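Example complex used in Figure S2.
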Amino acid sequence: MAFGDYPKEYNPAVHGPYDPARYYGKPDTPFGQLKLNEIGSWFGRRSKTPSAFMGACSRVWWRWQHKYVQPKKVGIAPFFQLLVGSMTFFYAINYGKMKHHRNYKYH
Amino acid sequence: MIFSPILKLGYLKQYLKQPFVLTCTKICPPISTTKPVCPGSSGKPPSSTPSLGLKRAVKPGKVRMGFIPDEWFLFFYSKTGVTGPYVFGLVLTNYLFSKEIYVMEHEYYVGLSIFTMLYYASTRLGPGLGRSLDKSIDEHVETLEKARRDEACVYENAIKDAKDAQWRAEGQKLLMDAKKENIAMQLEAIYRERFMQVFHAVKGRLDYQVKLQRSMNRIHQKWMINWILQNVKKSITPDFEKAVLNKAIQDIAAISSKT
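Predicted assembly (366 residues):
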């Protein structure tokens, strides 16, 4: 186990060039097509090792990259997405402080 | 960790200048496997890539209002129609402001001014800047592609010239054959000429022998005749001559008495 290795299930003869946004494990129903009562079992089937979690984070990053940053003619959308994302994140972690700057006592 | 992608995005287009092969998502056009054409004059290049299996998308995912992905709006569409997500956004922001979960402190007003400036910058200057950057990227890609295509063209021309040289070498073979035929013809002509010389020489000698024989015969005949005549003239005595003359007179008399 080393950082930066290909996933175990990747086979260049079968899959072709490596695609960092693609999940190479056993095929499962996509998350958007699950029924509500299947969520628990679906989550149970996923591997929850740290390297699997890092793999998932990497795939999320690469999917966002492929869709919004790497195409030839991108616009300003990824910049604004990162802007808004970081704004919400930092507002959330500073919320404790922000509570004291409220203008009204009763809402 | 958050700032590095933002800084990278600041140099977005230079970052994109690095060749990058990417996944085939729904956005990608199908892979074309046309061979590169060798342009005599520069024409529109066909989109040619080696069959790597991955191709870079040309257009990014659609977004509304600058940054919200289109899929979030379409997710609402089946249940609430077109205005659903906007109403949802309004209600959410109303909730956040009224319950003061989003506090309107002085940072908020700073953010409002910055948002206004960003909005006007991106709507007024954005498209123009985008077009000029796209153009520079296209020129860069075109120079690279042109270099590759010209090199391929050079090699194609080298192949063509090599084939041409092979064809010419075969022509040399034909030339050699023609020269051999020419020499053979010359030899034949000289042979015939000499043959005729031999013929004439032999014929001349034979003609000489014929003439020689004929003249010898003539001379022999002449001398023989002369000798015979001399002998005959010698053998004619005067008595014989008188007897013959008398006979002749009697014969003439006999013939003249008959008629």
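The mean pLDDT of chain A is 86. The radius of gyration of chain A is 20 Å.
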